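The methods section describes the discrete structure representation at length, but only in general terms. An entry of this sort, consisting of the sequence and the corresponding backbone structure tokens, reads as follows:
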Amino acid sequence: MAYTTVAVDGGAVRGIDNAGVRSFLGIPYGASTAGQNRFRPPQPVEPWDGVRDALAFGPSAPQADTRPGASSRGQRLLSLLYPRTGSPVEGGAADEDCLRLNVWAPSGDHDGALPVLVWLHGGGFTHGSGNEMAFNGDVLSAAEDIVVVSVTHRLGILGFLDLREFGEEGSANAGMLDIVAALAWVQRNIAAFGGDPGRVTICGQSGGSGKVATLGAMPAARGLYARSIMMSGPIGRANSAEAAATLRADVARMLDAPTPDLLRALPLERLVEAQAEVLRRAPLEPIGKGPERVSLDEIPGFAPSRDARDLPRYPFGDDAPEQLAGRALMIGWTTHEAGMFLVDDPAYGPGMTADDAAARMAALPAADGAGYAELAARHPAEPPHLLLSRRMSALMFQDPARRIADLATARTADVWAYEFRQPTEVLGGVLGACHSLELAYVFGTVDRIPLTGRALGRLAVSREMMRAWASFARDGDPGWARWTPEEQDVHGFGDPLGPGLVLPTDVDLTA
């Protein structure tokens, strides 16, 4: 193990060169967002003297926990996805000095020639961190000879509270402006790590996919990246300015703080408590009990909103910005996304009967004319609960992603689609190929994340996905047929349940 030093904005940083990869953790790309910087656009990083250690992750953004986990099964799922603490902040500090990024780069001198993958974490726009174990970039960087950057930025009430009527321009989309600042930092500094600033791919999953989409509609992000990957987050719209203003008024009444100065004077803990209360009153329930909420086309509440300067158009829609033209896009979903969201439902699981699943499915909007009987005939190895999850997942994720792919082809010929189909046997097979399961596969961390299970085949699937993501970042082509509205080619990763492949139900990795 050896230390390695690189000069960046603000000064020199010291990382570690080990096992074929150089790791630099917790590098600041902007000043602390506390005090007078609260709610304001990101400010330049404050320079430091000498060499600054970049050996440990920086703080995560302050956040209120809105993840599933009301039941013991939901809590066990979280412990399998976040094995350090069962939380996306991974047991680290959360602080307003959160404008940090991590860089993993192959060892050796690469003279600014390597492709760069900039990772934007999930968690809607209210929780998560760039430090999560599933997407630490060391394995992917060393295996595929690419530079990996993960970004932490403001979330929730601190990143998306609309104070524009008080002259606080940028407040409603401050968290997105943080990401723009991080991408600008990459443009200025990544060559020092061997990365090519002309081959930057932005990639995110779930809420991170929404961040990728939003960047495509932000004038300030123009020219900061070349390609996009949207994973399990087909978010094509931003909230309206009117909805953002209504949320601000609600928060102001709750905190008895109607002005920005009063809000800045409040303790951080009080703001996070208010955010938690807002989320309790109107939780994001993409599934629901019926047809009223099954899509993730937009995320209400603390999230990006339309703005004449920062976000003048919807990311994907009839008025999608021309800056999308010519930019390659890869978009995908998992087969059983809904398994993660249904895990707290006591009626959901291997005990669900075909009649129960059919009744639940009948209450959902029709999709490609397939009811329960048709799905069961197409996928005879899947138990009823996974067939229900499959149908919900198509409505929530797959169908909107297909619409985005079609819209994108109007502005670029380089569109690819994929489906992650590899199930996990944990929790008695309740999850299938669920939301967030693919993270460890893309980053080669399946042996670190118990959610992936123990099937040996998952290692080969992970290698295939790492190669595809790196190939897309390197050359703009992941290695399969392009999407067209006529052909609609979808590449499958992993083996769905079928003859000879049955989920074991006697393995409990949490026992």
Notes: Residues 2-337+397-493 form a domain with the Rossmann fold fold (CATH 3.40.50.1820). The chain has one domain: 2-337+397-493.
